[in-house]
Structures are given as structure tokens and as C-alpha cells.
Design brief:
This protein is of the alpha+beta class. It is built from two helices and eight strands. Helix 1 crosses helix 2. About 19% of the residues have low confidence.
């Protein structure tokens, strides 16, 4: 995933108005937000067997599809008496051979942070990422990849947007304040291998 420059820092973004924000001096992400969100999306696709193979790195084998997107907002909104967690993200699926987009979605949601602490705010942000990943898996799962032909950018294949999948209770939060930094290399975009029977040639 690409990310707006303001969200590519390790410090948690605290927004105080549409035109004013600051960085937390003491609460930081374990790794960069775009890498953490990408890891969660890859994990969701793997756990649901949406594709035969999912990898963050591009090796010798050429995938048929890749998933990319843009992280537009990942922040805690401080509105005096109330805190909100805000996630905005655009995700798209494209053919690897010609780069043409065949599906896209946008997730933009806010949720209240009932306990005004960064640890609780991070947990709510993690829940939002889980919802976005569930929506992605649900929509991609409805695609007929063997018959789908490339469409113009931003033309969604699905006529109706399914409800997001519920987040599993045992799923650990993606984001944690402070802690060991992840050392696993991250790649962008996310190459995908279709399941048997889903293979389809390019247009």
C-alpha cells in the first residue's frame, strides 16, 4: 500500500481538526502503518484461501493478479471530550500482465474511543482494519476471476457491496503502541496466485 506522507511516520497521528494535527511524542507504531495494514490484508486473504498463493514479495513466478491501494487516513481524532479512531483506505485488484484494474473498494469509517488512552485507540483502529480486510475478502470472493475481463480504473465489478465480515474475537490487534519492531521485509504491491479453476488469461 502507498500512504499519504503524514501517515508514513512511526508516531501516531492525532487530529484536532480537519486542518490541524500533531504526532504523539510517546506512542508509536511497531512498524510503519502502510506495512502493518498490508500485512493484515495479506493475512486475511491467506486465512480465507481466497487465492492459491499470497506473497508480499515478487519472486520469479509471475502472479496473475496483484492488490494495491492507498492508506488515506489512520489517526485518532481528539475532539475535546470525545476521541474517535478513523481509518480511510482504498484497495484495488489488478491484472499483473497489463496492470488494468478489475475491482476496487473504499473503506472510510470512524468509531468512538470510549476510553481516552492511546492503547485503547490503537485497539479500535485495529478493529477498523479488520473490518476493511473482511470487506475486501467478501467482495473479492464474489468475483469470477476466470470470466472477469479488465475494466477501466475505478469501475467496480460487483453491483452491490456485501456487508463486511465480522472480526474474529481471537484475532490479535494489528497495531501495538511501543514494542519490538517487525523485521520481516515488506513489499508492495501484493502479488496473488488464483486458486485452481479460477485461472483466466488476460484480455
Amino acid at each position: 500500500l502507498d500512504a499519504a506522507a503524514v501517515y508514513e511516520k512511526f508516531q501516531i497521528v492525532v487530529r484536532q481538526s480537519p486542518y490541524q494535527l500533531r504526532y504523539s511524542d510517546v506512542s508509536v507504531w511497531a512498524v510503519k502503518p502502510s506495512d502493518m495494514v498490508s500485512d493484515q490484508m495479506a493475512k486475511a486473504l491467506l486465512e480465507t484461501n481466497s487465492f492459491a498463493g499470497v506473497t508480499r514479495e515478487l519472486f520469479e513466478a509471475r502472479p496473475e493478479f496483484f492488490i494495491g491501494g492507498e492508506l488515506e487516513a489512520l489517526e485518532i481524532y481528539d475532539s475535546d471530550d470525545l476521541w474517535y479512531a478513523h481509518l480511510a483506505i482504498t484497495i484495488y485488484l489488478s491484472r499483473f500482465d497489463d496492470g488494468r484494474r478489475i475491482w476496487s473498494m473504499r473503506f472510510d469509517e470512524r468509531r468512538p474511543v470510549t476510553t481516552r488512552t492511546f492503547s485503547h485507540g490503537v485497539r479500535v483502529l485495529s478493529e477498523l482494519v479488520g473490518l476493511a480486510a473482511g470487506q475486501m475478502v467478501a467482495e473479492v470472493g464474489e468475483l469470477d476471476l476466470a470470466r472477469t475481463t479488465a475494466t477501466e480504473p475505478h469501475d467496480p465489478v460487483l453491483p452491490n457491496k456485501p456487508r463486511p465480515l465480522p472480526r474474529r474475537r481471537d484475532q490479535e490487534p494489528v497495531f501495538v503502541p511501543e514494542g519490538d519492531r517487525a523485521t520481516e521485509p515488506a513489499g508492495d504491491p501484493l502479488p496473488l496466485t488464483p486458486l485452481p479453476g479460477q485461472e483466466g488469461g488476460g484480455p
